[in-house]
Amino acid sequence: MGFRLEGIIPAMLLPLLLTMVLFLGPLIQLSMDCPWDLVDGLKVAFDSHFWVLCLTDMRWLRNQVIAPLTEELVFRACMLPMLVPCTGLGPAIFTCPLFFGVAHFHHVIEQLRFRQGSTASIFLSAVFQFSYTAVFGAYTAFIFIRTGHLVGPVLCHSFCNYVGFPAVGAALEHPQRLLVVFFYLLGVVLFLLLLHPMTDPAFFGHLPICSLSRLTSATNSISSLSLCS
């Protein structure tokens, strides 16, 4: 289930850094639009009063702590070890996120109940949310299998909840849009180049979940070897 000490430091740092590389464009865009400079940002980050405010804000706790921890625990740590013996590692990575995406459809009920838009717009929003949560779920499932740790997916989930979905429309209308778009594209390219090197299982020690793939058919076992090595 990803609770172990072996390789925990790289399991905390490397997936989070990889995710930050993917979000290079939004982070650059945020830094351009932020009224604070680096020194001000560091002062806030090390201000104990700031963290007290965060830890007493139920919305912050839900988005940054509770939701990432519980969702990754259920959909990665619990569900993947059950799916892998049946499907193999590869299919499990793409099957597990479907449940994760469907689990977010409860927002439709809330929006319909409180009439937060037309029925068509609410369902279109739900389909869009299902799509990107499923893609994100596949990514964190990949991280979980490659690292054998739960902490990486949890930190990546918390980071993505904080940054939010990339504001591509705002980037295209930004006064320095060429520079912003360049960093968006650079982030995607670097992410694809670094995806396998930065999640190399050699950094994280023995991967218990990979032993479950031996219970599948020979074809699935062979395809799983590339994910575990």
TrEMBL record:
What EC number is given for this enzyme? 3.4.26.1
Q: Would I find tRNA processing among this entry's keywords?
A: no
Q: Which residues form the CAAX prenyl protease 2/Lysostaphin resistance protein A-like domain?
A: 60-163
Q: Which reaction does it catalyse?
A: Hydrolyzes the peptide bond -P2-(S-farnesyl or geranylgeranyl)C-P1'-P2'-P3'-COOH where P1' and P2' are amino acids with aliphatic sidechains and P3' is any C-terminal residue
Could you tell me where this protein is found in the cell? Answer: Endoplasmic reticulum membrane
Topological category with respect to the lipid bilayer: Multi-pass membrane protein
Q: What is this protein called?
A: CAAX prenyl protease 2
Organism source for this protein? Eublepharis macularius (Leopard gecko)
User: Its gene?
Assistant: RCE1
